[in-house]
Design goal:
The protein is of the alpha+beta class. Helices cover 21% and strands 33% of the residues. It has one domain: 3-Layer(aba) Sandwich (Aminopeptidase).
């Protein structure tokens, strides 16, 4: 006789779909915004509008959208070094009823092999534990944005980075800058 396995309390991993912003149908884009609105507790359409086009990972459970991650290309530059082509992660969100079940972690793990042609991955975290568990580290040096040929200090921001196969040696205590953008600079 075979032993019956006990029901698992761990949910099955999500089915993950990768698409570009231009490939999102209006219905799917609305579902992503609705998911992010619920997860962040605010209307996220203005944030998406400021980000522009990027790549998305969609996590589904039994066909329903439960988690989302987006990345856009940015240029992060440690002081005295060249700017690094960076996969900048945005809008990591999980439906409130599905949070703390590993969906965002699954998307973040799926993300890494997809950005092998970038020199760095980075994000401005809403929470640090999720990312720290997966190897993301805080940039310790001062942060700024490049605008109009100068630097604008952003002392209230915190950024985490994830080294990728093409990441050069980095001193995390150096000043770090990013190109200016409307909305959330980091």
């Amino acid at each position: 006789m075979g032993a019956e396995s006990a029901p698992s309390s761990v949910p099955a991993p999500p089915a993950i779909e990768h698409c570009r912003s231009t490939e999102l149908t209006d219905t799917l884009a609305a579902a992503v915004r609705t998911l992010c609105d619920a997860a962040y507790g605010t209307a996220t359409a203005p944030f998406f509008a400021s980000l522009g086009s990027g790549d998305h990972l969609l996590g589904r459970r039994q066909g329903a959208l439960v988690s989302h991650l987006m990345w856009v290309p940015r240029w992060l530059q440690p002081a005295g070094q060249r700017a690094l082509r960076t996969a900048y992660v945005e809008m990591v969100a999980t439906a409130p009823a599905a949070q703390r079940q590993g969906y965002a972690s699954a998307l973040l793990e799926h993300f890494v092999p997809l950005v092998g042609d970038y020199e760095l991955a980075a994000l401005c975290p809403a929470t640090e534990n999720l990312y720290a568990r997966l190897g993301w580290r805080f940039w310790r040096g001062p942060l700024s944005a490049r605008k109009g040929g100068g630097l604008v200090a952003t002392p209230d921001e915190r950024v985490m980075i994830l080294p990728l196969p093409q990441t050069p040696s980095l001193d995390l205590d150096l000043p770090l800058s990013v190109e200016w953008r409307r909305g959330e600079v980091w």
